[in-house]
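Predict both folds.
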Amino acid sequence: MDGIYLINKRRDWTSFDVVKYIRKHFPTFKVGHSGTLDPFATGLLIVLVGKATKLVPYLNELPKTYIATLKLGEATVSLDSDSPITNRADVPVFDEEQINEVLQSFTGESMQTPPMVSALKKDGVPLYKLARQGIEVERKPRRIYISAINLLNYDSKNNLITFEAEVTSGTYIRTLGSDIASKLGTIGHLVALQRSKNANFNVEDAKDVSEIASLQPQSVVKALSHYKQVEVSDEDAQKIKYGQKLRLPYDEQDLIAISKTNEILAHLSLENKNENLYKIARGLFL
């Protein structure tokens, strides 16, 4: 059961609901996930079971791709359709070229302020609980990076924009949607959100959580393919298992060591560049 599993999260389920469901069916295993999805969102949730939970911090850092549908002219407190409409505004007339121009203005690095309705905490209290009480607190902007954003569809009759965005971890697509609407001269909120890709895995390969018992674990090598991977000798593989340092002919700061049988062994960190000496940052063998 140890391994990486791809779950297509249902709408109105929290990411923890998925973890709780799996823990209930496999109570002797640790269960974690990579990248929290909002309850109203659907799509790819990478679930890690047993020894594979040690991979969570590595997968959390990887870029993710989302497909979102933005409703223009209506705003909500949560920036999505999980809360009532609080404001309405006129929607200017524009064409797809103008929308594309606005979307492309969001590519690259920027600072984004997290929404009040989020799991971030203020003095130990989740912000969404404060938001429910009508309390708004200052949130520090976060550095994000959007590597690609593209218009998929524009329904001018219903004021709906569907776009795809590849973003760094920690990017709030709800906030991005609201910011897009603002730049278009109106207001807006998301009515649909799907995570389509994460760590080289696609939502098309994910299954409903009810099928967890019959799922096959995914390749750990594929999951970590964003990192520089190097095959080590059997002798070095033994050294890794005993926590010993290695001399390897590389100069990258971080490496993922793989055995000759294509098994992930460890995250290696360069300790001494002059001697090509690497230490074990973390053992990753399952």
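Second protein follows, with its predicted structure tokens after the sequence.
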Amino acid sequence: MSGKWRTRRARMSIPVVAAAALAGGQLTAGAAAQTVDQDTARTAARPKFQLPLPCGQKWWTSTHKGHASKYMVDMINKNGKTQGTPVLASAAGKVTESKFYRDAGNVITVNHGGGWSTRHMHLDIRSVKVGAKVNLGTKLGTVGNTGSWTSGAHLHYQQQLNGKVVQAKFNGRTLPVKWKYGQHYETSKNKCGPEPPKKYYVVTKAKTSGYTSTNGKIKVGFLNKGKNYVFCTAKGASKKYRNTTSSWWLKTDLDSGHVNKWVPAAYLGKGGGQPKDTKGKTIPRCK
């Protein structure tokens, strides 16, 4: 996949590449389209940008020699339809450009403060106007194929610092520079919500009461004997089960329907040390 879904090699009229000039058949960046090395980019507080596409979707990313900067990114959907997919704000900010250009098509630019901005080109539609305040995940438009300098539906995307294109980062990770599709894809974490807590599996030796806290005073429901999952562990009041006494407690969802409650780790029958799961891994302390 190398010949389709790209911004073509040509002079664009939009400000970011207005100073580009053809040299030896390729675009070379002028003052308005210069790149910034990563040490310079780190001098400003970069927002924690997310992929500007719906949560969970996977998108191939690529640049090519026709771009004024190798850090300009073209994206196509890895598993589904590209055209018409919502384009979302990578971080909170304010729309400073919402305009149609003959060559770049529909363009949206968002100012994120601190010198940082993002640009989105070739959109099918623009859903926000200049001056609109947006949050992470706000719909800006949809992926399209507008403008004369595109060879197929894709999203052309840039992260800029003080007007200069820099190497993009998504979810805190630097996007590698790839020169054709099929070499690297990103999975969107845009507005995915909190990740579910990790589960650790243990075996309780008997049915036990659940408690509202690790002081072991107020009972709420029960946890059955057998294999159960827990989320984390904490210290509290000592409890005894047969020959095992422990001051460790386990946070879990009870079989009675109560969630995020506490059961004594003594019912694991494994001594008084910090509890471990069935694979021998130490269960982390609750934060």
